[in-house]
Amino acid sequence: MKVSVVKEAAPGERRVALVPEAVGKLRAAGLDVLVESGAGDGAWLTDDSYAEAGASVVSRGEALAGDVVLMVGKPDEAAIGAMHPGQAVIGLLGPLTDPELMARLAAAGVTAISLDMIPRTLPRAQPMDALSSQANIAGYKAAVIAAGAFGRFFPLLITAAGTARPARVLVLGTGVAGLQAIGTARRLGAVVSAYDVRPETKTEAESVGATFIELTSVGPAGGEGGYARALTDEERAAQQDELAAHIARHDVVITTAQVPGRRPPLLVTDDAIKAMAAGSVIVDMGASTLGGNAAGSVPGETVVSENGVTIIGAGALPSTMPAAASAMYARNVSALLLHLVKDGQLMLDTEDELQAGVIVTRDGAVVHRALAPPAPEEPAPEEPAPEEPEPEPEAGTTVEPGEPAASAEGNLQ
Ligand code: NAD
After folding, report:
1. Active site residue 120
2. Angle CA 33–37–41, to nearest 5
3. Torsion on CA atoms 305, 308, 313, 314, rounded to nearest 10
């Protein structure tokens, strides 16, 4: 079976799905590895390094014709057009936010396997958890970017020219990225506070060195699968108001809050920004075209508010560390691929909880339970009616001749 790696098509994407180090493991499992020429350029991985590891360096057309195509992001229209029925594509396909892409892949007869749908709480899925590996990178880089943009020191410094007090950093959202941002800001010497709407994250935040802020106006908001649920309008307004006072006391705010499949919640309002001191920095990891965690953030851009607060829209941080991000992603995608391969062939089994989690399209249809239209109800098998006396109609009801009476299980249709 041919497993191929294509050069990522998204503008600015520098990661690659497989690094040379991962090629040997796939070959040992009986797989042929094809790599599009130049696929590793953005991560400083040369064609020669892939060839030395045992991969064949091929054209884009040949790579797109592989039995299993590995990517980091999503295939673009041209890539889908070049694919044929029976192929599989594995990547961070974002099916919940892009159901149209899934319909398109299903129509093309391509099996879509999405790493971002891994059931993350399954212990055996840990090595495949690309959301966590990439969030770790993003959290680290967010803290480094914040330190770079801040016009003062992060650590306490005592010098002959004076003493610098440590920066006060607030991390909003303490999932995987938030915890890494806390740890990194701490290692740089900042004094770090943190908040999350899931109070169970308090001990985790404290274990990496933050003081956890507990809001009195919003209760716990844990949702399914260890994620947060979306807040109601009233909860959101109360949270924003109470957070504003905390935000004003900090020099740097790093926001990482996400709710799966929804636009990121707004945590830092215009009023909160106005109350921050000039020279403060916000790094918004939730920045998106629909809006981010901080008012006025623009993905990929830095804006400065009228009162001198630098707001960095940091949407795609893993791609800014392409070597580390690709190496970690390659381990995740290889672990998943090897889980799906038996005797050198892809053997899919949706009875397996892990596989049912990641397989989104198959045999020309969208099959994932989070996206597939509900299956039509099976018509009841025609069986002879049991020889039971018909129940007496209840007082006050009448049963017309030929009309079935209600059964204990519901109406017989
Ligand atoms: P995420 O990227 O979906 O969200 C980041 C954080 O934002 C979350 O902690 C969330 O609670 C928080 N958030 C959402 N709305 C908020 C709001 N209005 N205000 C404040 N905070 C808000 O989360 P993630 O990093 O992908 O991780 C989600 C959870 O899954 C975490 O508990 C993580 O530890 C867990 N997880 C578990 C495993 C495992 O069991 N092996 C693996 C990976 C992740």
Report:
1. yes
2. 110
3. -170
Which residues are bridge partners to 407 per DSSP? 410
Q: Would you state the pLDDT for residue 374?
A: 67
Q: Could you report the per-residue pLDDT of 275-323, keeping only the tens digit for each? A: 999 999 999 999 988 889 999 999 999 999 999 999 999 978 999 999 9
Q: How far is the CA of 260 from the centre of ligand 1 (A)?
A: 9
Atom 33 of ligand 1, nearest CA residue: 175
Residues 254-271 have pLDDT tens digits of: 999 988 778 899 999 999
User: Hey, whose CA ends up nearest to atom 2 of ligand 1?
Assistant: 258
C-alpha 332 – ligand 1 centre gap (Å): 19
Strand partners, 158: 163
Question: Which residues have C-beta atoms less than 6 Å from ligand 1?
Answer: 120-121, 126, 129, 131-132, 135, 172-178, 196-198, 201, 226-228, 231, 256-260, 265, 267
Tell me whether residue 168 is one of the annotated catalytic residues.
no
Alpha-carbon distance values, 33 to 53, 61, 179, 197, 345 (Å): 10, 15, 36, 44, 13
Q: What is the DSSP letter of 89?
A: E
Task: Give the pLDDT mean for 321-337.
Answer: 98
- pLDDT tens digits, one per residue of 120-164: 989 999 999 999 999 999 999 999 999 999 999 999 999 999 999
How far lies 403's CA from each of 160, 399, 400, in Å?
96, 6, 5
To the query of whether residue 129 is one of the catalytic residues in this protein, the response is yes
Integer distance in angstroms from the first to the last C-alpha of the chain?
A: 49
Contact 211, 192 (CB under 8 A): yes
Tell me the percentage of the chain whose pLDDT exceeds 90: 82
